[in-house]
């Protein structure tokens, strides 16, 4: 509309100038006819017809300093306004055009233009009302044309916006609503249209988010079903283990030395298995128990892991322990045992991919040291290592397994237990095989409790 207004302003001014020039051109032709006729030989009726065709009341021409009236009808003796078309200034033409359009030309105008036959100038006397009416008709035509163009433009804009914005946004909205109602149905996941603008980016990101949410929901459904199955299995397994524990209690009364040596270990492993089953059954009813942290001596704990794995003398896997003498960790003994057992079992399974065992090649090394207020334990093996595709989700349940048929729970459980201690479990890059690093910080010292305890000790001594 602004462009149409800017076009209309010079157009109406140009229309007025052309209208007046057309009258002067007609008068120019009439002047040639009247000047060629002998003096007084033009009938009055013909002169009126010529003036009517020109649209003027009088036509005059000045030539050689002499002004000659070529034809005339009844006109006032004096024109109200003089308009010289020989020199037209554009801003004056615009202002005059709007003056005529808004206020009209009710008076007689004297219009001056170039004269034929080397005359000084040609002048005509015209009425201003036909000019105003012609300009009004031109303005109305321009207005109707502008409305038509605006209507077509509005329709084009509407259909363009509907195609580029409204329809894609409606498609995105419908997919969002449908996905909210049935997130498990794959048909409700939006397919990107391939656009490179913000709408295309929104479609791509929405589709990725929907696929991720659908995958998470499927995984949670799978976990729920698995949890129910595990609870049923553990219920029966706990009863079987309890029966095995009763039988193992009777072994303690057998006087044979070898039985006396292995019976306590068997009983301890059965008690631990029953405790694991019980914790699995109560997992859904309550969160994981807070670690009961004590000062755990690492060397006996690592040896217990070694015995639990059954890596005796006859197993061709070399078990190397390099732990600082007397090193202790501020941790829950049973939970730290589970962490080390899961990592060691994964290492054994990785070494089994070699086929035949070679103690020079197949090794499991455990290194323990203290770094400030934290204990660092590294467990490494000489297996094939962790594939690149498994590193992104290594510590996530059902994603971190690199062994066919593996559930991918060992590393997830170990990482969760280490995090419960405020520590970190990570994969060390750039090593032979796979190396996992456990970092467990000591608990913060409660200075207030220590001061109170020290005060209780000092006070009786002073008394």
**Shape designation:** rod-shaped
Give the topology string: H per helix, E per strand: HHEEEHEEHHHEHEEHEEHHEEH
The amount of helix comes to: 40-55%
Number of helical regions: 11
Q: Please, what is the average pLDDT?
A: 80
Biggest β-sheet strands, sense, barrel? 5 strands, mixed
Strand order of the largest sheet: 2-1-5-4-3
**Proportion of beta-strand residues:** 15-25%
Radius of gyration: 52 Å
User: Got a strand count?
Assistant: 12
Structural class: alpha+beta
CA-to-CA gap between the ends?
Answer: 101 Å
Poorly predicted sequence stretches spanning 5 or more consecutive residues: 282-287
Description:
The chain is of the alpha+beta class and 463 residues long. 55% of the residues lie in helices and 16% in strands. The protein has 11 helices and 12 strands. The protein has helices at residues 2-36, 44-54, 90-103, 129-181, 198-251, 257-281, 298-309, 333-351, 388-391, 410-420, 447-462; strands spanning 58-63, 66-72, 81-84, 108-113, 121-127, 294-297, 318-323, 328-331, 363-371, 374-381, 424-428, 434-441. The strands form 3 sheets. It has a 5-stranded mixed β-sheet with strand order 2-1-5-4-3. A 5-stranded mixed β-sheet has the order 7-9-10-12-11. The chain has a two-stranded antiparallel ribbon with strand order 6-8. Helix 1 (2-36) packs across helix 3 (90-103), helix 5 (198-251) runs antiparallel to helix 6 and helix 8 (333-351) runs antiparallel to helix 10 (410-420). It is rod-shaped, with a radius of gyration of 52 Å. The two termini are 101 Å apart. The model is unreliable at 282-287 (pLDDT under 50).
């Amino acid at each position: 509309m602004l462009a149409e207004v800017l076009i209309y302003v010079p157009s109406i001014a140009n229309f007025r100038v052309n209208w007046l020039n057309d009258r002067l051109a007609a008068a120019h032709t009439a002047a040639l006819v009247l000047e060629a006729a002998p003096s007084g030989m033009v009938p009055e009726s013909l002169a009126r017809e010529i003036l009517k065709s020109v649209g003027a009341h009088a036509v005059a021409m000045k030539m050689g300093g002499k002004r000659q009236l070529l034809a005339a009808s009844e006109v006032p003796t004096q024109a109200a306004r003089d308009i010289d078309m020989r020199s037209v200034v554009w801003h004056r033409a615009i202002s005059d055009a709007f003056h005529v359009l808004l206020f009209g030309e009710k008076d007689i105008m004297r219009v001056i233009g170039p004269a034929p036959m080397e005359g000084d100038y040609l002048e005509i006397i015209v009425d201003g009302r036909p000019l105003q009416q012609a300009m009004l008709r031109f303005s109305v035509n321009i207005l109707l044309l502008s409305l038509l163009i605006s209507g077509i433009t509005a329709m084009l804009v509407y259909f363009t916006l509907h195609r580029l914005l409204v329809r894609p946004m409606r498609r995105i909205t419908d997919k969002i609503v449908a996905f909210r109602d049935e997130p498990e149905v794959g048909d409700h996941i939006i397919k990107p249209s391939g656009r490179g603008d913000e709408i295309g980016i929104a479609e791509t990101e929405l589709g990725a988010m929907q696929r991720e949410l659908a995958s998470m929901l499927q995984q949670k459904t799978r976990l729920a079903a698995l949890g129910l199955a595990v609870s049923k299995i553990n219920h029966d397994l706990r009863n079987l283990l309890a029966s095995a524990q009763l039988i193992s209690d009777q072994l303690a009364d057998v006087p044979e030395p070898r039985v006396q040596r292995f019976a306590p270990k068997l009983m301890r492993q059965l008690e631990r298995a029953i405790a694991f089953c019980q914790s699995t059954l109560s997992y859904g009813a309550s969160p994981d128990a807070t670690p009961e942290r004590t000062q755990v001596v690492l060397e006996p704990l690592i040896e217990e892991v070694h015995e639990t794995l059954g890596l005796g003398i006859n197993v061709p896997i070399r078990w190397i322990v390099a732990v600082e003498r007397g090193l202790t960790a501020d941790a829950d003994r049973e939970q730290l045992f589970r962490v080390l057992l899961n990592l060691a079992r994964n290492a054994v399974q990785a070494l089994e991919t070699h086929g035949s065992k070679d103690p020079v090649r197949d090794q499991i090394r455990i290194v323990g040291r203290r770094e400030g207020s934290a204990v660092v334990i590294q467990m490494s093996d000489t297996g094939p290592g962790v594939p690149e595709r498994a590193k992104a989700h290594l510590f996530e349940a059902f994603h971190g397994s690199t062994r066919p048929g593996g559930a991918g729970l060992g590393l997830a459980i170990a990482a969760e237990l280490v995090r419960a201690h405020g520590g970190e479990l990570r994969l060390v890059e750039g090593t032979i095989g796979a190396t996992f690093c456990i970092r467990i910080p000591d608990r913060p010292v409660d200075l207030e409790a220590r001061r109170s305890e020290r005060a209780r000790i000092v006070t009786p001594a002073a008394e």
